[in-house]
Amino acid sequence: MSAVVEAGGLGKRYRRRWALADCTLAIPAGRVVGLVGPNGAGKTTLLQLAAGLLEPTAGTITVLGKRPGVPAQLRAVGFVAQDTPTYAGLSVAGHLRMGGWLNPDWDGELAERRIRQLGLDLRQRAGSLSGGQRAQLALTLAVAKRPELLLLDEPVASLDPLARREFLQVLMETVAEHGISVVLSSHLIADVERVCDYLVVLTASRVRVAGDTDALLALHHRLSGPRRAARPYPASWEVIEESHTDKQTVLLVRTNEEILDPAWTVRPVSLEDLVLAYMSQPNDAARAGRPRLEIAS
Amino acid sequence: MIEFQLDTVSGVATYLQLVQQVHDALRLGLLEPGDQLPTAQQVVAKLAINPNTVLKAYRDLEREGLVRGRPGQGTFVMRTLSGADSATQARFLAAMTDLLRSARSAGLGPDDVEAIYRTAARGCFAEGAA
Amino acid sequence: MIRFTWLRFRTQALIALGALVIIAVVLGLTGPHLADVYNATVVPCHRYNDCAAVLQAFPPAPDRTILGLMNDLVIAVPGLIGIFWGAPLVAREFETGTFRLAWTQGISRTRWLAAKLGLVGAFSMLVAGLLSLMVTWWSGPFDQAYQVRITLAVFHTSGIVPVGYAAFAFALGATAGMLIRRTLPAMAVTLVIFAAVQFAVPFWVRPHLIPPVTTTSALNLGSVVEWGSTDAGQGNGGDLFVLTQPDVPGAWLLSNEVITPAGRSASTEPGTQACGGGASTLQSCRAYLATLHLRQELIYQPASRYWALQWYETALYLAGALLLSGLCSLRIRRRRPAGGDVRRAGRPTDLQNRPRPAPSPQSA
Predict the structure, then answer these.
(1) Of C199, C5, C158, which is closest to residue C70 (Cα–Cα)?
(2) pTM of structure
(3) What is the predicted pLDDT for the residue at A231?
(4) Closest approach of B39 to chain A, Cα-based (Å)
(5) How far apart are CA A63 and CA A5, in angstroms?
(6) Residues C228, C232, C235, C238: is their CA dihedral positive or negative?
(7) Taking CB atoms and an 8 Å cut-off, how many pairs form between chains A and C?
(8) Which of A51, A112, A192, C169 is deepest in the core (most CB within 10 A)?
(9) Backbone angles phi and psi of C273, in degrees to 5
(10) pLDDT at A106
């Protein structure tokens, strides 16, 4: 499958701080990609770079094989920014007309059908819509331009649980119907677990891990064993996290080999624990993931 | 048409849950050969899960020979699972429901019932395990 | 994009047009009356030789008020356009974040900006032009009576310069909004800079748009209106001063100096008893002045240059507007940081607040 977003050494600096550094990704098409990490990690920066709202300070990024921000790419990519900006004084109908005027591939019938399904009043001003309705409107605007890729920046973060569920339902239905790729950022792991089949973990401006969710879960294991078993680990193991008590050692290990040592109890890792483990790695990307040797007491 | 549920706390993978629910429905006679399974679009519109998950579950079921996808038309049930006919299933479903009701009035909770079931199942099916 | 810009701008445009209609009605009702008064009193005043008195009383009081109001309006409107239509044009989109919606549709940023600047800018010029047209028509009798339209006090209240002012103020506001990215500060900056420009141009630029006429002629003693010495009383020592009323009707006087034959100012001559002393009289002073063979040097823009100056000044402002628009256009191509992440308070089950496992210990 071709890559829908490709980044090579991508970086973005504001004054002295690198909001995103050394980002290399190849996101395959046809997936729902979860971009996770705490606030300030660089998720918004990455999405805005992909949408063409920002220009890279270092490295390269191509989206659908083209440079972001050029009209040829803009028509194939739908973007919904954080807080789903809309024109407060403009009606829902006005927003749809805008979509039709500014987008060459606009599907007006699709837009109207969705608005009807959502039960939005065409004459109501966007400023008086609820957060959930605004998010749905923004999503409709992005989807009705018939893009190949949707970039959503924390679209459900400020919504109540019901609105959140409805948004994801509509989004998934759209993916199923039109087969578009989605990259959505979130700091809510539960949503990511539900809808995403590809994961990118971003912390402190760097990519910690990126890959197919099922593959990642298959590769990672939680190992617990008695303290004395904590001796040099096999070379094929990548220890992501380790903790020791006086009696027990618990590891989070990434390996594609079977763990045969009976001293270890092997359990699967939940997506949440996996993400958290990668997020708490040290900032030095070069050292990240290397097996750590324990210094005996 | 059956409706899928999702249990987010059980730790069981979503697609396995869908497969399991189809198996259960087949066993209980809620699904019969020729019935159509909900489309991926319908499932995700309700459950807000990734469409690929649904497709994966349907692929597994197709590999088991239980369903078949017809391009442009949908996914249809091919055969039932081996087991008793639907009448027998219904009879035992009714009996089980009555038993559980009396258990509840006797003061037993779901965990108690499960423990009892497991013990009994071990004893019963272990001898004749295939 | 033009249609969309109009959709968003429609309400403000209709309000402006409504105001113009009201003004048109007021002027339309009072204009003919003013013309009648002019024809009845000012036109025949030469016959009765009471022009001075008539002009004093013309225009009648209510029309005078309206005239004052209309002049103020024509002066104010370009600035208001710059502040209320120019500054928020782009700044508002930055403030509300809607530029992230606008710039990810299917058109380029340059086209987006061009449509906004073009439509609203053109409308601004139209409004200013219509207003100026109406006011110029209405104050026609006034202009004919006083012939002062090229002078500093009146030049900017009629003709076509308000169109140039409006275009420039609008472009200035838009540029300020583009660079500052906040509406209120942009409005303030626009006001300050536009006011400064409007103050500077009439004093330092307009006089030189066309090289002014300079004439030097023998001093007509009949045009002397004041004379004397700077230390009046003694009459000995002090400098002579002579004030004249030149005879260039309707001109914009830039400089009016009485000079000696050598070319120096008359004030380099000393005052005398004859002129400025306690015993001086009109005759004695005149006699004295005649001996000096003084000359009068006038630098002015004649009334006939009114339209030339109007066109040049309008062109200047329009050029300024185009320059600023070009600046905006260049600026919007350079992708500027769109601002960092929106900071949020923590939420339940979010990764921000979840207690992280402690960094792995190095030793047991």
Answers:
(1) C158
(2) 0.82
(3) 67
(4) 9
(5) 5
(6) negative
(7) 145
(8) C169
(9) -60, -35
(10) 93
